[in-house]
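Possible regression after last week's pipeline update?

I re-ran a chain I had predicted before the update to compare outputs. Posting the input and the new output here so someone can diff against the archived version. Not blocking, just want to make sure nothing changed silently.
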Amino acid sequence: PLFAGLEEARPGDTFVDLLWSTALDSSQPVVYDVYVRTTVESHDFNLPDFTTSDMFFRVDGLTNGETYFFVVKARDALGQRDGNLVELSATPQVNALTGVFVDVTFGSDVTGDGSFANPWRHITYALTQVSAPETIWVRPGIYDTTVDGDGFSEVFPIHLEDGVSVLSTGGTAVTAVDAEQTAGVFRVEGVGAGTRLEGFTITGGLTSTHGGGIHVLNSSLEIRDNVIT
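New output (post-update):
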């Protein structure tokens, strides 16, 4: 298989989330073997620790404060593995953030509860589940109109609530909110100073009037460190 290997290893509280892109191969289906070690370059590639058909995997049951080393290899239907040796490390840590969590890759609006380990999937849904004062922490990914397997997606414009801050954990380079030309991205009305919107690339907004990115009416919230395109 033609495969670039593991691209991200995101540490959590007793877990690490792994992400990669699709492998190319003529002998389908392709699966992904996940290797985990506590010492660098010590993997036995004949004995994977986990196997998945997804492009992401959560390794849980890890010890906080200990560094783990990860490799992911693609394996086709003929049993052939790619030759990549990309190894990433991550150290799980106790969660220090206060609030609820959204993760477009690992979250669920059906089985999630908004906790660090079991986040919701969409910002839109999270805003219906909380009351002020609250902070919604949004993990890296693209939050758009794509409908997931449970029938949920972002619904634009996303209406911010008074006293509920929406902050990205990774910043503008890795966290985007994309309305895909369906509507404005965010709408804010009657929201006070206890609300903050921070750390997103805000894109794909479309409106016939004003505020394709963020439409603010009669509000005094804090908006900072966003990129609007």
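Follow-up from reviewer: compared with the archived run. Residues 100 and 200 are 17 Å apart (CA to CA). Marking as no regression found.
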